[in-house]
Amino acid sequence: MTDPSFHPRQVLLGAQAGAVALPVCDHYSGVEARMKKSLALQAEMADEFGACVFDVTLDCEDGAPVGGEAEHAALVSELALAAAPGMRVAVRVHPVDHPAFEADIDTIAGRAGARLCHIMVPKVECAADVVRACAALDAAGAQALPLQVLIESPLAVHNAFDIAAHPRVQSLSFGLMDFVSAHAGAIPAQGMGSAGQFSHPLVVRAKLEIASAAHAHGKVPSHCVVTEFGDEGAMRAAARRAADDFGYTRMWSIHPSQIRPILDAFAPGERQVDEAAQIIQAAIAADWAPISVDGVLHDRASYRLYWQLLERAHATGRPLPAVARAWFPPPPTGLA
Fold first, then answer.
1. Residue 159 · residue 152 · CB < 8 Å
2. Half-sphere exposure of 167 (CA within 13 A, CB side)
3. CA-to-CA distance for 336 and 326, rounded, in angstroms?
4. Which residues are bridge partners to 293 per DSSP?
5. Which domains does the chain have, with CATH numbers?
6. How far is it, in rounded angstroms, from Cα 3 to Cα 124?
């Protein structure tokens, strides 16, 4: 018999048990007042859900005024250091070919690197850009700080598998608006919209390539923005399609009103959670041998699927059946 003390995650995922697992929502803000509000909201919702359910990424690329890049880098460093304990805070720096890139890394990673969950690097075109970013982080003393990257051009999509293969890369995000504009008018403006981005063939192809590259290397594919932040229906529909039809397990928010719809769209339903808990409990009772549940065969492959569903439920703050709660002990004080 399998030792019952073995945790389902270790039994089912084995060496993959240490694979990247990120909150399903990545919330961006770059203006000082909004960054502070985002960090406060993150702490409030962590208290509500019992876990840090979304990342806050403080933005230098779009947030820093031209000529004020150094001051903005210092600001986001101080905000990250002042964030509540256990909160996941990241920073998007300027692209590697921007004059402020090295200074961004030196200031932000040098001062707050130990407090950050990752650095987001935009406009990555190839694996060499990742190597350059890693070298800058290492020079700033942030050798352990993970990278996330933005894929924003046809060339970057072409190189997505090589980019995802780099061991320092945690996640690939799709930069929809820059991707569309990189086609010099060949993709109409509707391709940036909440509906059009799921119908134009070039945009659809890019999304699928990025998701496939990420999954091929055990990384997290992160879906692009919905710019119509005042349209909750459009937001929910886009998030659901990203999760259900395109293989994305994470999505960007650019307004606080988008956070809960993303959490809802990426979270499994109550019936799914109950079914997953039932199947994993039966699998444990059978020592992980194949079983039949309601006339359907289940084995290690489906066990992994249902276990990962339970992990996603926990990460999105969904209530778990009593039998499953023991598999997800509460975090230490302060959500660290």
1. no
2. 2
3. 19
4. 296
5. 20-266 (3.20.20.60), 269-328 (no CATH)
6. 45
Whole-angstrom distance, CA of residue 328 vs CA of residue 322: 11
Whether 261 contacts 232, CB under 8 Å: yes
Q: Which two tokens stand for residue 36?
A: 């502070």
Distance between CA atoms of 191 and 57, rounded to whole angstroms?
A: 25
Please check whether residue 89 is in contact with residue 55, taking contact to mean a CB–CB distance below 8 angstroms: yes
- The two tokens of residue 159 are 């190189």
Residue 171 near residue 214, CB atoms below 8 Å: yes
Q: What is the rounded distance in angstroms from the CA atom of residue 173 to the CA atom of residue 163?
A: 12
The predicted pLDDT at position 11 comes to 87
Sign of CA dihedral 213, 124, 82, 36: negative
Contacts 24+ apart (CB under 8 A), 49-53: 49/316, 49/317, 50/317, 50/330, 50/331, 51/314, 51/315, 51/317, 51/331, 51/335, 52/23, 52/86, 52/87, 52/88, 52/335, 53/23, 53/24, 53/25, 53/263, 53/315, 53/316, 53/317
Between CA 141 and CA 162 the distance in angstroms is 25
Tell me the per-residue pLDDT of 186-231, one tens digit each, with 9 for 90 and over.
999 999 998 899 999 999 999 999 999 999 999 999 999 999 988 9
On the CB side of 267, CA atoms within 13 Å amount to: 22
Count of positions (residues) in the chain: 336
CA dist 218 and 60 (Å) reads 28
The model's pLDDT over 35-86, given as tens digits with 9 standing for 90+, comes to 999 999 999 999 998 889 999 999 999 999 999 999 999 999 999 999 999 9
